[in-house]
Amino acid sequence: MTDRARMRLLVAAVSIGLLQLLLQLHRPQHSLHQHHDDSPSPAAGAAAAAAAAADAYAAAAGPSSAPLVDVWILAGQSNMVGWNKADGQPMPQLCAPWPGEILAFNSTGEWVDAVPNVHTGIYDYPDQDSCGPDMAFARTLIQMGAARKVGLVPTAMGGTNLFQHWAPGGQLWSNMVGRTQAGMHQMAGRGRLRGMLWIQGEADGAGSMQQAFDYGSNFTAWLAATRSALSALHPQLPVLMVIMMIMATRQRDIALPQLLSALSALHPQLPVLMVIMATRQRSIAFPHIDIVAAQQRALQLPGLFKLEMTGFEFYPMDVGLPGGEAELVHLTKAGCAALGVAMGYLVASKDGLQCSS
């Protein structure tokens, strides 16, 4: 079977699930005063089609000789880690392990089959029933034909800011660079560094107003230092950033064609994917989060791709505020899975990122 025929088969198998997922992403989020029912989660509608697509792709692809592992760095705060044990949801099928296909560079410096949560042991994160967007992201890349195998290098830590904790030369930054270099060295030519997923910004919105206003310049310096440190592995590391959202509900929906057309600016650079922070019902815990989101949106850097976080499911949690107000701090398991699929779909839809080995 030709590559074109395999891709047609894969697209047919996954299109229904993607459509269901996109429809779910554009539904308004529940407020803190609404009760959750037993309806399917945002990612549940895509799970069955995703599993079928995986089987179809595996059957169509046939044998191959030692495909390269596409390696992605995971960096940022707790929503990159996944902190959703308390959301009351089961683990989505989209986050299920895929032995031999999705790998993780673990806390002891070994490549192993990835399982949720891939950050277990990193900065003493416990082994608990939670997930980030990473597993669904990797699964989507494979199912969409953008990778044959995916390797994840977890380096995120919750509650950390960009102006101090992630500053170039500091512990978190040095650990991220060192773990990436060590992981690629262990690949011994079997892997290629493809990019970074960056979900961070809440902590910069919890400090002073000046620290929030400095986010843009701090990130620009941080990205330059990171790309310089990893230049031997990739000439200009791309990043995908998820952006904090503050638009009114009726304005928040994002046109998928607009997102896809923005991908053309990435080629031939490896993407950095930045998630722009959501701001709805988070302003008490993070009083300047809208400033950080505005700084993230204003960034215009080569190889930086941005995705809005609003529209993905959060769960209310008590963060110890006066009066006992609950805030939407962390994504649910379904929210993380849906975000991972959206990120993977955008990367996979770029022609230059289609699998070639």
TrEMBL record:
The record's SUPFAM superfamilies line, in alphabetical order, gives: SGNH hydrolase
Signal sequence extent: 1-24
One Pfam family of this protein, by short name?
SASA
Q: Which domain of life is it from?
A: Eukaryota
Which InterPro entries does this entry report, sorted A to Z?
Carb_Esterase_6, SASA, SGNH_hydro_sf
Q: What keywords appear on the UniProt entry?
A: Hydrolase, Signal
**Taking every annotated instance into account, which residue ranges of this chain make up the domain Sialate O-acetylesterase?**
70-247
**Name of this protein:** Sialate O-acetylesterase domain-containing protein
The record lists the organism as Tetradesmus obliquus
